[in-house]
Design goal:
Layout (H helix, E strand, L loop, with lengths): L1 E2 L2 H21 L6 E7 L3 H17 L2 E7 L5 H13 L5 E4 L9 H7 L11 H8 L8 H12 L8 E5 L6 H9 L8 E5 L6 H5 L4 E4 L17 E4 L3 E4 L7 E4 L4 H4 L5 E2 L6 H24 L1
Parallel strand pairs: 1-11, 2-3, 2-4, 5-6, 5-7, 7-8, 8-11
Antiparallel strand pairs: 9-10
């Protein structure tokens, strides 16, 4: 069994990007600039955005954190989005989810200009991804594909079962794994809450990608010997015996499933770090695109 170490691979990708930034600086050119918009004080969001800002600093990117109060109106947020769309100094930006309940997330994400949508959530970018065109791929699916490539996991002709049909992970990864290319060429089954007998399908799977958000959903008796298991789930489970008052776990019963798997991602330390690395890669791509348009 091989652990798909997202921390190690993400650090390698960050080193590669940092070398690219050094070359950009040597040429006297503008370094990539990533902005993040955070509304409110959600604990997980604060941690995640803070990690992105630190990663930018480490690799030589410029970064801007725009932290707005919880009571920010939808109109005020949309005005901020328009300002970022028009700001030529910023190559790409993200609006951190979830947003407060009084704000329509879809309306906000639709307002982000596709050329700056380094999260890859805009329908224009999703559509281009589905058509196998160059675009910003949503960072988590992008990270999964990169992990499979760098560990040279055999995917061609394999049966992949994806659990969860979200627009952010499940649906895009099902498309990417079915396309032509490295870490792809799979036959993909996309399962969800209305799928009957998911266990019967996962037992057939050579590769299982679980993006459900239900702790320990995937048990050892649901996977066949030698399966590749990608755990995208990340849930804070309350635990008063721990200093933080919770522990983080994934969708997979790691202790038991790992005994049967050929490759498996841990939680934490698997897909999560890859998401940030690929967001940085998308920002570098955005900077290259903006420069080519300016030329």
């Amino acid at each position: 069994m091989t652990i798909l170490d997202g921390r190690a691979i993400s650090n390698k990708i960050k080193e590669e990007i940092a070398q690219e930034v050094i070359r950009i600086k040597e040429l006297g050119e503008k370094v990539p600039h990533l902005a993040a918009v955070l509304v409110g004080n959600d604990g997980a969001s604060l941690t995640y955005v803070g990690s992105k800002v630190r990663s930018c600093k480490k690799i030589g990117f410029e970064s801007t954190l725009i932290h707005l109060p919880e009571e920010t109106s939808e109109e005020e947020l949309l005005q901020k989005v328009e300002q970022l769309n028009a700001d030529d100094t910023i190559d790409g930006y993200i609006v951190q989810l979830p947003l407060p309940k009084h704000i329509d997330e879809e309306k906000v994400l639709m307002a982000v200009h596709p050329d700056k949508d380094v999260d890859g959530f805009h329908p224009t970018n999703f559509g281009k991804m589905a058509l196998d065109m160059e675009t910003f791929i949503s960072a988590t699916p992008f990270g999964i594909m990169e992990l499979l490539k760098r560990y040279e996991v055999e995917t061609e002709g394999k049966h992949a079962v994806v659990i969860g049909r979200s627009h952010i992970v499940g649906r895009p990864i099902s498309i990417l794994m079915s396309q032509k290319g490295k870490a792809a060429n799979c036959t993909v089954t996309l399962t969800h809450s209305r799928t009957k007998d998911i266990k019967a399908l996962t037992l057939q799977a050579d590769i299982v990608v679980s993006a459900l958000g239900v702790p320990h959903f995937l048990k050892a008796d649901m996977v066949k010997e030698g399966a590749v298991v990608i755990d995208v789930g990340i849930t804070r489970v309350p635990d008063e015996t721990r200093e933080r008052g919770y522990y983080i776990t994934g969708d997979v019963d790691f202790e038991n499933v790992s005994k049967k798997a050929s490759f498996i991602t841990p939680v934490p330390g698997g897909v999560g770090p890859m998401t940030i690395a690929m967001l940085l890669k998308n920002t570098l791509l955005a900077r290259k695109r903006h420069r080519s348009k300016a030329d």
